[in-house]
Design goal:
The chain is an alpha/beta fold and 275 residues long. It contains 9 helices and 7 strands, in the order βαβαβαβαβαααβααβ. The protein has a 7-stranded parallel sheet with strand order 3-2-1-4-5-6-7, with helices on both faces.
């Protein structure tokens, strides 16, 4: 029997970017806890869903909806389809986002002075405007339904502190082309924190809680060994995160265990921001 404070049985949970590295782990965790999980993804392909989620793809407690989070109309269409099937979401996890990896081409990872405006706008559009639109549209439904809810915005250590450019210096030595961690991701993610605080105070009396969950870097097989070594050398816990190591924090923020928590930032970063 589940602890009532953490019981999520039959709760309707929307997860954007639920087919990504961290998002897929959220989907599996909440599904395993008996929740009804709706994945919102821009590119919905049945084969990809099966590849990422395995047997969950045929579960009657999983739905995958095509939704462009930068389009209010697309979001509303997906939410209306979800409402027809299950009802009003009780939890929203704004997980979808764009980032620039060290493998990115030079034209989008060069010096700040040359960073392309169109790329800046695209990253802001997805990471900040998309989070705003999802929060607005789902929050409205939560308010109108009168049942409250929990909205969890996924932040980033690079929204709290500036990137440490030194850990990418090896790229210039290795390839002759420097990699500068771009400004757009940091600017977008930093905006998420005050969006969270604004919505927490705006909807506090409506029973809608809004918090941020801040992860640090997740290890991937495709990452350069030099990057991983430089990154972990600065990490107090001594390693990069596994994709499923943010699940506990997400469950806490979604469940009644955090019912008196809103407008907060729950940092799960292996100690990165403790320096």
């Amino acid at each position: 029997m589940q602890d009532p404070l953490f019981d999520l049985t039959d709760r309707i949970i929307v997860i954007t970017g639920g087919l990504g590295q961290i998002g897929a782990e959220f989907v599996k965790e909440f599904h395993d806890r008996g929740a009804r999980v709706a994945v919102f993804s821009r590119n919905v392909d049945e084969r990809r869903v099966r590849d990422v989620l395995g047997q969950l793809a045929v579960s009657d407690r999983l739905r995958v909806y095509s939704a462009d989070i930068t389009s209010r109309e697309s979001i509303d269409q997906a939410l209306e389809a979800l409402h027809t099937k299950w009802g009003t979401p009780e939890v929203l996890i704004n997980n979808a986002g764009l980032d620039t990896q060290p493998s990115a081409p030079a034209e989008v990872s060069g010096p700040f002075e040359d960073f392309p405006e169109d790329v800046f706008r695209e990253v802001i559009e997805v990471n900040l405007v998309g989070t705003f639109l999802m929060t607005q549209r789902v929050g409205r439904r939560m308010r109108d339904n009168g049942s409250g809810g929990s909205i969890i915005n996924i932040g980033s250590i690079y929204g709290m502190v500036s990137p440490v450019q030194d850990i990418y210096a090896y790229k210039a030595e290795k390839t002759g082309t420097p990699f500068i961690k771009p400004v757009a991701y940091s600017a977008a993610k930093s905006g998420v924190y005050n969006l969270t605080r604004y919505c927490a105070t705006y909807w506090g009396r409506e029973g809608i809680r809004v918090n941020t969950l801040t992860p640090s870097g997740v290890g991937r097989d495709t990452q350069d060994t030099e990057f991983q070594a430089n990154y972990t050398a600065r990490m107090p816990i001594g390693r990069m995160a596994n994709a499923n190591e943010f699940n506990g924090a997400a469950v806490f923020l979604a469940a009644d265990a955090s019912r008196y928590m809103t407008g907060s930032n729950l940092v799960v970063d292996g100690g990165w921001t403790a320096w």
